[in-house]
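Consider the following input, taken from an annotated entry for CubicO group peptidase, beta-lactamase class C family (Deinococcus hopiensis KR-140).
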Amino acid sequence: MTEGLWEQPTPNPAFYDALQQHAQGLMHQHHVPGAAIALLTPTEERAFTLGVTSAEYPQPLSRDTIGQIGSITKPFTALLILRLAEQGLLNLNAPLRTYLPELQLSDEHATQQATLRHVLTHTGGWRGDVFENTGDGDDALAKMVRLLAEQPQVTPLGAYWSYNNAGFYLAGRVVEVVTGMPFEHAARQWLLKPLGLEHSFFFPAEVMTHHFSVGHVQQNGQTVVARPWSLPRNSAPFAGLACSLNDLLQFARFMLGDGRNAQGERLLSEEGMASLLQPQHETTDGRWVGLTWNVALVNGVQVSSHVGSTGGQTAVLALIPQLGVALASMTNAAAGMEMNRALLEWFCQHVLHDVPQEPVWLTLGQSELVEYEGRYQVPGDRHGFRVTANEGGLIFAFQQGEGREVFAETDPWPPTRLAFHANDRVTVQDGILKGMKFDFLRVEGTVRYLRAFSRITVRQQ
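Applying the prediction step yields:
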């Protein structure tokens, strides 16, 4: 499959042609108006842009076009926190109350013992998708931290990995307290400026003075512009960064290095750099989480990656430190998440010779399948999932709730079949989610949780 395309240290030109052709096919399949994609190797970087910035007012994308990178902001925040830790301003293992003495969570043990390491490894256990607009003032994060007292503790502190945006309100507020400045200003001074990222912004007013992309969602089968464009200010530590493809590549180049920036200035020790990508906590199916980074062994080689999604814009950044290689993709459609997932799979197949193996599917009887049936939801969340036994397998369906949606509405996914590839672990069998893996978690032998889309939901009684 890969012979003649990928040759170390520089790919054959045919590799880039194949990558671009595959990306174009995925854009068409998933109705993505625009994408900016780049590959970094030890000897060169290649980038190409496809499509337009907006379906309504189309302009060609460029490497300098600003797009939202969503949760890829989290690795930036992790790097910022490690810089502050090495300066002696904070400690990843100290209770958050060391810096936020007023902190109150709904669970007293979490209130007293939760740390930045819990936050950066998504093991805090409290409700993770908490989105409230607390205004545009410098107190936006402080207000949000106070609201976390109302959120339920879904799983015990440190017990499970479950993707958690809300923890980064706490991390961002700690940064503000120890630096004495708003989070965005601290990130600019301690991170973006030293890295030379001149096209990376938190504030929409800054983005609007540059060439930028808008997001798109599917509504009634049509691709439409996602509105509003911006996120609340308090989202800055976990999803608020917008940047150009060039800046995302510059960040990737730093992450593949030894902690020095392009000018040779040391920003982080080599030990600190290694800790960012070092496995910290097991997630699922032999994967791990580093300090925000997803870590997997692909054909014996470590791949560290992170995805991001906002209101209609998605991105992926993948690092292969052993090869000094990085892949970055930024799209302006919610369905770009599926495109990026497929692009990363293709990339690993061609670079790491990772040939997917068809699983040996498990056959369960009806009495076994009913153990998994039920509605799964996080208390306070608007949406949930319904799992039912059907003809020797499981059917997984979204259940939409009432209330206001924070992000632009998009058409829901239709019900899909789940098949067991291991005990309590399933793979989606159809639709655009095909190949995604979920897992059920037991407490004292009884199915208690479903972890889907990296988030733990609770089986309702």
